[in-house]
Amino acid sequence: MADLKAHLGARIAAQGPITLSDYMSECLLHPQFGYYATRDPFGAAGDFTTAPEISQMFGEMVGLSLAQAWHDQGAPGHFVLAEAGPGRGTLMADILRVGRAVPGFVEAAELHLVEASATLRARQRALLGDAVRWHDDIDGLPEGAPLFLVANEFFDALPIRQFQRDGAGWRERLVRFEDGQLGFGLGAEIAPDMLAHRLEDTAEGQVVEVCPAAAPIAEAIGQRIAADGGAALIIDYGDWRSLGDTLQALAAHRFVDPFDDPGNADLTAHVDFEALAGATPSAHSKLTPQGIFLERLGITARAQALAARLDGAALEAHVAAHRRLTHPGEMGNLFKVLALFPHGATPPPGCET
Ligand code: SAH
Asked: How far apart are CA 236 and CA 323, in angstroms?
């Protein structure tokens, strides 16, 4: 098999058009050709940049929030410190560095990472060492100890399905292969229960998205937190309820056609936070814009303290990074934070109920 396009063409020829979710799974995680399976996509030389890669301040604020939540819950002497989709491991390294300033926090933490890509696991091991335990999925995380977890730009990488409104029902947008080209077609008319609540807020021809993997993951995280204590910070781009086609493909920091070069572009979609909040058996916060979350935790004071040691180009880059993380016109409003925590506990700092 030459490449992912040939593999997908053969699969579609054999079984007919596939769901967008199957297409995304193949593009992102195919063991030989998948996007995350084959590369480190981050940074200036890669395809996109994430908040922890922009500035250490992001991970410091996340770490302070988690460490304070740990303290507020009685500073348990043994807990699981976990991250879903850790990328290069930068965010966890920043959390651990700031966590060392909180007596007992790092000593009580047992480190667990949920990561599907072998390439990125190797990078995480290089940065964080061998004391980490890796899992293929959330269900691998231990139970029976408090769980403090962060997931930044993890849920947006999970495959979605898309449905287009047609009268009182829907047609699924399916990926087909014709004349050597991948593209969308429409499936038969259906009326699935999971879309019943979207008949109220959609019009003919509009597209809604469902991420089948997201709710079970939120449920598994929330179930551990409700039973054993802990907190989760889920940070991603998206909104309370998504409407329309939000699938996007990025390569070399540019938007590209998601069907152009399968396996070589990052594919993501907006996160539907309502679906996560609805699935967790724990308590959850209001959806908080990232800029407000970071301001509440004191990012501006931290930025000023760091700025005092910088000048010239380094100072300019630092000021730009602070702006990029917090400004409503940049990542400050597009990205949101949802916190999960036990019923009756205080929400992690930066989030409120
Ligand atoms: N949190 C990091 C990386 C975000 S990119 C940051 O902010 O920089 C998405 C991450 O999730 C990558 O590490 C990717 O390999 C991982 N990932 C994507 N889909 C996954 C899945 N289904 N299961 C586990 N990890 C996944």
From this structure: 18
